[in-house]
Structure formats: C-alpha cells, structure tokens
Amino acid sequence: MNIGQKILLLLKDEIPEIEYNRYIKHLIYDVKKSTSDTALFYAPNSLVLNWIKNKYSAKIRHLFEVHDSSKVNVKILLKNQVESKKSEQKKEQKHQHSLLNPSHTFENFMVGGSNQFAYAAVKSVSEKAGVLYNPLFIHGGVGLGKTHLMQAAGNVFQNQGKIVIYTTVEQFLNDFIRHVRNKTMERFQEKYRKCDVLLIDDIQFLSNKEGIQEEFFHTFEALKGVGKQIILTADKHPKKIAGLEKRLQSRFEHGLVADIQPPELETKIAIIENKCKINKVVLSKDIINYIATVIESNVREIEGILSKLHAYSQLMHVDIDLPFTKNVLKDQLQENRANLTLDIITQSVAKDLNIKPSEIRSKGRSKNLVYARRIAIYLCRDLTQNTMPQLAQYFGMKDHTAISHTLKKINELIQNDEDFKVKIEELTNKITSSS
Known about the structure:
This protein is an alpha/beta fold. It is about 60% helix and about 10% strand. The chain contains 22 helices and 8 strands. α10 (about 210-225) links the parallel β6 and β7 (about 230-235).
C-alpha cells in the first residue's frame, strides 16, 4: 500500500462513511508523478474533484504532515482530462511525423544546373544540423522541388532519432489559433520550441500577419539560441516578401539563402525518365522529349502527366504513342497563338539564348546571331499569320526569298538533328503557354 492510499484510509476514520464512499474512495494516487512536495490524485469527474478540493484537500494535506512528516501541496486532476491530453499529444506527434513523405529522399531528387547549389546546401545541413547554415532558406517557383529537398533532410534527421517538425505556415497558424482558443499556449510553445529540427514551407504566407510573426520570431530565437536546425522555403527571396518584419527578414538572411531555378531541358528529361522508372510507366524517347518541352517549369506536373497517360492507356486499352500523348495533354499545352506578336516571339528567343532582341534584328553575322535569327524567323512564321514579305521587313532582310532560304535551313536541321528539334519544340511550348 502506497502513502497516498494510507492517507485516504486514515481520512476514512475521520469523515462520514457516506462521504467517503461517494467521493474519497474514487481518488487515485499517482505514485510516479507525486514528489516530496506534491501529492497528485486523480478524480473521476469534476463533481468529485471540486467537492474534495473545497472540503478535504486541507485535511489530506494535514494527514500527510502528521503521518509522513512531509508538507505537500495536494493536487487533484481529472483522470479523463489527463488521458485526453496524452492521447492528443500522441496524435500531434504522430501527425507531425506523418507529414514527412518517405519518398522524398536525396536519392530520388534529380540534380541539375538549376538546383545544384540548393541541393548541396541542404545535403550539407543534413550532415551537420545546426552547425553550417542556420537557418537555411530555399526559394523558387511552384513545383521546383523545394519541399522535396526540405523533407529529404527531414527524413535523414528523423532516421537519426531527432525530433523533426515539418509544417506549412498555414498549419502553423491554425495550430497557433487552436491553442490560443483552448488557452494551451504552453503546449504550443513546448511542441515547436523543444524539437531538434523545424521545417516550415511557404514562409511568404507570414506576410502581414503580425500576431503569428511575433510568435514565430520567439520560436525562431528559442531554437536558434540552442543550435537547433531551421529550414524554410518560400516562393521568393526574403527581401522581396512584402509585409515581413525587418527583424525576421534579417534573421532569414543571416544563414544561407539558396534559390532553385526552373530546370533546363536535360534535367527535365532526366526527371521524367526517373519518374517513369519509379512509377513503372514505359515511354519512348520521343514522348519523353515531348513532355519535357510541354512542361515549362513546374516539375510537379510531370508526375500528374505520367499518371494521366497511364490511366488513359489502361482504361482505353491503347498503347501510349506520340499522337495519343498529344491528344491527352492538349489541355496542358494551353495554346493561345492569337495574341502572339513578332516582338513577343523575338524577345522570348533572345531571352532564352541570352542575347538582345535588337541584335537578332540587326545585320550581325556572327554564328550565335545567325543561329538565333533563324530560330526567331522560323517561330514567327510558324506561330503567327505574318507573310514572308512582312517577316523580311521586320528582320531587315532584302526580300521574301531570304526568309524562304532561312526556313529551308531550319527545316533541314529539324529533320536531321534531334537535339535541335527538341529545342524548337521547347521554345514553341514556352512561348505559347506564356502568351
């Protein structure tokens, strides 16, 4: 018999039996959590709890002092409240871990020139948490792999036994509001400030939210102060996030800021080939190249496209060939050629080839300029209703025969050079999808 049970039996001799049977006998003494200065009991409901607290807690405290020579604070809690708290904590812990996608690993991430720096930075951080770059801030457009990289690090940390929290700003805000309403902010703070690694997606949504920015600032400081790793993602550089407090902007920039650019064609092809392998989808080289040219930048679309092709093929019992692919993906092409102008096409070619639009229309005869001019002329003829004399005038050429000669050269290249053909397709889809 433990000391708590002894004290309750001693109390039985000093109070009416009906009160003991109705209230006191239902108390449970917690041996493990009671200390030399605290006696912890659990009551089955609030009626019993309030009655004992108001009428007999002082008496119980006195009996501890007389028979155990200890001055204790008698604490009575609701049994179901404690169980509910444990259940909710387990649920929260399970939920936070389940948010990490186990397939998001460094091995499954396709590295190219557009993301090499960000990949190297995250990989280094995963090997030395809180030491190298803290915080690590990754920014880039939608669907370029920011979340994949962040969670790849999270999976490494979790496999090391570290407490990892991955969340989005929206989930962080909802969690904050829930704990404020329930008056349990100490649990919110304990959850986010006691972890080893904090991963937060879409930090740009902190913009203009003063209350949550204040709370996040203190969470950030608490973690950073004890060397815990923080990795953040956003769609833009910290300096360009409007409505972000200067002190947060300063701290985000204090670590390492790495950007991810849209993948170049070679990387997109490699990504598609890898996704085909993972999802067991067989596609020819022509189809893979075509998909790579259709998707301008959002890598996340690739998996959806492969699933769509596979589903159509299975349901309609047809093989996946190039005409079938084009038909299935016609909505994704977003072809809108009506608004295209010669200036828009020339500017797009110039940007892609890193030269000035004025140089394309100049009399320059360097190899790079001739190459760019031929591509621009071909695309202007293919994507607009302009006649060859109109194109000759626009590009400063003698007459329509010069345009005809250029188009003939380009068509020969398309027929004989697979890489050049893919380049033309990529530019065509980039121009039409952004128009």
